[in-house]
Amino acid sequence: MTKRRQFLSGPEEEELSLLGGRIRMARIRRSLTQAEIAERTGFSRSTVVDLESGKPGVSIGAMVSVLAALGLQGKLAEALRKDELGEELEMSAQKRAGGARNVADF
Protein backbone atom coordinates (compact mmCIF):
# COMPACT_ATOMS: atom_id res chain seq x y z
CA MET A 1 0.00 0.00 0.00
CA THR A 2 1.49 3.32 -1.01
CA LYS A 3 1.34 6.37 1.19
CA ARG A 4 -0.52 9.36 -0.15
CA ARG A 5 1.56 12.49 -0.25
CA GLN A 6 0.31 15.38 1.76
CA PHE A 7 0.39 18.75 0.08
CA LEU A 8 -0.01 21.93 2.06
CA SER A 9 -0.17 25.51 0.94
CA GLY A 10 2.61 27.89 1.96
CA PRO A 11 0.57 29.43 4.80
CA GLU A 12 -0.39 25.97 6.11
CA GLU A 13 3.27 24.90 6.12
CA GLU A 14 4.20 28.09 7.97
CA GLU A 15 1.45 27.43 10.54
CA LEU A 16 2.74 23.91 11.18
CA SER A 17 6.31 25.18 11.44
CA LEU A 18 5.24 27.86 13.93
CA LEU A 19 3.26 25.34 15.98
CA GLY A 20 6.17 22.88 16.00
CA GLY A 21 8.56 25.62 17.05
CA ARG A 22 6.31 26.62 19.92
CA ILE A 23 6.07 23.02 21.10
CA ARG A 24 9.87 22.77 20.92
CA MET A 25 10.25 25.98 22.94
CA ALA A 26 7.80 24.68 25.57
CA ARG A 27 9.87 21.49 25.86
CA ILE A 28 13.15 23.38 26.16
CA ARG A 29 11.71 25.74 28.79
CA ARG A 30 10.85 22.68 30.84
CA SER A 31 14.39 21.33 30.44
CA LEU A 32 13.11 18.17 28.78
CA THR A 33 14.76 16.25 25.96
CA GLN A 34 12.98 14.85 22.95
CA ALA A 35 13.79 11.39 24.29
CA GLU A 36 12.11 12.21 27.62
CA ILE A 37 8.98 13.42 25.84
CA ALA A 38 8.99 10.26 23.72
CA GLU A 39 9.26 8.12 26.85
CA ARG A 40 6.43 9.99 28.58
CA THR A 41 4.11 9.73 25.59
CA GLY A 42 4.97 6.29 24.24
CA PHE A 43 5.70 7.75 20.82
CA SER A 44 9.10 7.48 19.17
CA ARG A 45 11.68 10.23 19.41
CA SER A 46 11.41 10.63 15.62
CA THR A 47 7.70 11.45 16.04
CA VAL A 48 8.62 14.18 18.53
CA VAL A 49 11.28 15.48 16.10
CA ASP A 50 8.72 15.48 13.26
CA LEU A 51 6.18 17.32 15.41
CA GLU A 52 8.70 19.97 16.42
CA SER A 53 9.75 20.31 12.77
CA GLY A 54 6.19 20.94 11.67
CA LYS A 55 5.93 17.85 9.50
CA PRO A 56 2.32 17.32 8.36
CA GLY A 57 2.23 13.54 8.84
CA VAL A 58 2.24 13.63 12.65
CA SER A 59 -1.09 12.50 14.07
CA ILE A 60 -3.24 14.80 16.13
CA GLY A 61 -3.16 12.12 18.81
CA ALA A 62 0.61 12.42 19.03
CA MET A 63 0.33 16.20 19.23
CA VAL A 64 -2.23 16.06 22.03
CA SER A 65 -0.12 13.51 23.91
CA VAL A 66 3.00 15.69 23.65
CA LEU A 67 1.03 18.75 24.79
CA ALA A 68 -0.18 16.76 27.81
CA ALA A 69 3.39 15.64 28.61
CA LEU A 70 4.33 19.33 28.60
CA GLY A 71 1.46 20.21 30.94
CA LEU A 72 -0.42 21.96 28.15
CA GLN A 73 -3.42 19.65 27.89
CA GLY A 74 -6.55 21.49 26.79
CA LYS A 75 -4.61 24.27 25.07
CA LEU A 76 -5.37 23.03 21.56
CA ALA A 77 -9.12 22.95 22.21
CA GLU A 78 -8.90 26.33 23.93
CA ALA A 79 -7.31 27.83 20.83
CA LEU A 80 -10.40 26.82 18.85
CA ARG A 81 -12.98 27.82 21.45
CA LYS A 82 -13.60 31.28 20.04
CA ASP A 83 -14.56 30.80 16.39
CA GLU A 84 -15.88 34.16 15.25
CA LEU A 85 -16.19 33.16 11.58
CA GLY A 86 -17.99 29.93 12.47
CA GLU A 87 -20.37 31.74 14.82
CA GLU A 88 -21.12 34.33 12.14
CA LEU A 89 -21.79 31.63 9.55
CA GLU A 90 -24.04 29.76 12.01
CA MET A 91 -26.08 32.87 12.77
CA SER A 92 -26.41 33.66 9.07
CA ALA A 93 -27.63 30.13 8.34
CA GLN A 94 -30.14 30.36 11.20
CA LYS A 95 -31.52 33.62 9.85
CA ARG A 96 -31.90 32.11 6.37
CA ALA A 97 -33.64 29.05 7.81
CA GLY A 98 -35.85 31.18 10.01
CA GLY A 99 -35.31 28.86 12.94
CA ALA A 100 -33.49 29.00 16.22
CA ARG A 101 -31.15 26.04 15.90
CA ASN A 102 -28.39 25.91 18.45
CA VAL A 103 -25.12 24.09 18.08
CA ALA A 104 -24.01 22.40 21.29
CA ASP A 105 -21.27 24.24 23.15
CA PHE A 106 -18.24 21.96 23.32
Radius of gyration: 18 Å
Q: List the helices and strands in order.
A: HHHHHH
- Termini gap: 37 Å
Q: Uncertain runs with pLDDT below 50, 5 residues or more?
A: none
Number of strands: 0
Discrete helix count: 6
**Largest sheet geometry:** none
Oligomer: single chain
Helix content: 55-70%
**Alpha-beta content class:** mainly alpha
DSSP strand content: under 5%
Q: Averaging pLDDT over every residue, what do you get? A: 88
Shape: globular
Give structural notes:
The radius of gyration is 18 Å and the shape is globular. It starts with 9 loop residues before the first helix and ends in a 9-residue tail after the last helix. The chain has 6 helices and no strands. Helix content is 62%, strand content 0%. Helix 1 (10-29) crosses helix 3 (45-53) and helix 2 (34-41) packs across helix 4. The mean pLDDT is 88. The protein is mostly helical. The longest helix is centred in the N-terminal third of the chain and has 20 residues, at 10-29.
Summarize the structure.
The protein contains six helices and no strands.
Summary tags:
106 residues; mainly alpha; 6 helices; 62% helix
Itemize the secondary structure elements and their pairings:
Elements lengths: L9 H20 L4 H8 L3 H9 L6 H10 L5 H5 L4 H14 L9
